[in-house]
Structures are given as structure tokens and as C-alpha cells.
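Technical note accompanying the year-one report. For the benefit of new consortium partners, we illustrate the data format agreed upon in the data management plan: each record pairs a sequence with a C-alpha cell string. No post-processing was applied to the example shown here.
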Amino acid sequence: MEHVKLNLPDEHSCLDIKPLLSICRNLAVPQAAELLCREMQQLADLLTECQQGYQKAEYCLTRQKLEEIEAFSKLIGLPVLERVARDVQNCIEVYDPVALSGTMSRLLRMGEQSLTAIWDLQDRMH
């Protein structure tokens, strides 16, 4: 009998906390925690809207949401998510459905890991 090994993607979101700390620097802990919650909600909404556009093959909407994810990621210090959003945009531009499927899956994984990283940062603030 042959054994098959399943290799699952193992990649981390790489949160650069400097941008978030500079945003939260002049806030009290409760206000900073609230700000992080709003940031997490905004990122979750963008990822959901992007995924919905992709699933409906509405690539104009998907590209718009990807651009927003890219800009948002740059603003709050998520360089891997920023790069993956750019990669997905490139797949749409060259219309490569196989690469698009893979990079979109990667975007959603990185998005989930990024939300977890921000959540963990918020927990450390309390």
C-alpha cells in the first residue's frame, strides 16, 4: 500500500505593527481597540465583497475590491496580503483562470490569517 502525503500551504500573514501603532499612538487603549475592530471589519468586508465578485465572474468589481485591499493592506501593515492582492489583479489582467483560482484562494487564506494577526494584537492591548 502506498502512502500519500498531503502538503497544505503554510504561509504567514506577516503583520508589520508599525503602521497600526502609529495610527493608535495617540489613542487610549479602549479607543485603539475599537479602531482595530473597525479595521478588522473593513478588511473582512473587502475580502467578502472581493470573493463574491470573483464567484459571480464580475471581474471589474473584483479588481476594484482588490485595489482597495491592496491600499488598505499597505496602510495598516500587511505586506503579504498587499502583494497577493496585486498577484490576483495580474491574473485577472492576463485572464489566466487556473492561476486566478489559486491566487484567489491564497488571498482568502492570507486575509483570514491577517485578521487573526490583528485580533491577536488587539488581545495583547488589553
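Partners are asked to follow this layout when depositing records. DSSP finds five helices and no strands in the chain.
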